[in-house]
């Protein structure tokens, strides 16, 4: 059989300065330890570091290929804001859908190891490092991005798409806001699908 998912961990503290503990929520391997393992869990951290508020979400599957996605949710919240989202270790992440309501997700910083996947579904709007729009550096997503029809992904005006472990590196069937300047690296693959 396949392995179980990594579960959910929340670390909430007034002050996280000086905390160097290691927390993991990897999915479990299946019997053959090849593919079909459990989805990564989520590790949510909320507190302050050096007096600055920090809210992070880490989704890491330790290199295990899972058939299931990690669903990011906070009860039935329609708006989620984090200072940092990390998707790595072959994890596959998606936002929870809430009936027929628009769900918005904003990450000030995005991190990863180019092996994860982040998927934006219909009735969802994801803003990834869009607040850094004035920067002269391009936004280079460190994971594969999927924007499904009816979904919206907001990014900075300059995009640099690099090669990822899962191809395509970017697939857009929905709406991409930003990305007026678009550079695709040698080992990257981008698919822009016509809709409507």
Structure description:
The chain is mainly beta. It has no helices and 18 strands. The protein has an 8-stranded mixed beta sheet with strand order 1-3-4-7-9-11-13-16, with no helix packed on it. Strands 6-8-10-12-15-18 form a 6-stranded parallel beta sheet, with no helix packed on it. It has a two-stranded parallel sheet with strand order 2-5. A hairpin with a 2-residue loop joins β3 and β4. The relative contact order is 0.12.
Mean pLDDT: 89
Radius of gyration using CA atoms only: 17 Å
Shape: globular
Order of helices and strands: EEEEEEEEEEEEEEEEEE
Q: Kindly state the percentage of residues in helix.
A: under 10%
Record keyword descriptors for this entry.
single chain; 196 residues; mainly beta; eight-stranded mixed β-sheet; six-stranded parallel β-sheet; 0% helix; 44% strand; globular
């Amino acid at each position: 059989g396949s392995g179980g998912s990594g579960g959910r961990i929340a670390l909430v503290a007034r002050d996280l300065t000086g905390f160097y503990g290691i927390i993991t929520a990897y999915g479990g391997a299946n019997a053959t330890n090849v593919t079909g393992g459990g989805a990564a869990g989520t590790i949510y951290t909320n507190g302050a570091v050096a007096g600055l508020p920090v809210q992070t979400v880490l989704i890491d599957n330790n290199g295990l290929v899972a058939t299931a996605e990690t669903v990011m949710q906070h009860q039935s919240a329609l708006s989620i804001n984090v200072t940092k989202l990390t998707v790595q270790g072959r994890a596959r992440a998606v936002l929870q859908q809430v009936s027929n309501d628009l769900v918005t997700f904003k990450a000030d910083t995005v991190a990863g190891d180019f092996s994860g996947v982040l998927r934006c579904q219909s009735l969802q709007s994801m803003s990834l490092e869009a607040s850094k729009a004035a920067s002269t550096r391009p936004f280079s997503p460190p994971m594969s991005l999927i924007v499904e029809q009816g979904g919206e992904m907001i990014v900075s005006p300059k995009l640099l798409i690099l090669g990822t472990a899962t191809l395509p590196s970017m697939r857009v069937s929905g709406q991409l806001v930003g990305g007026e300047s678009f550079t695709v690296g040698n080992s990257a693959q981008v698919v822009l699908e016509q809709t409507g």
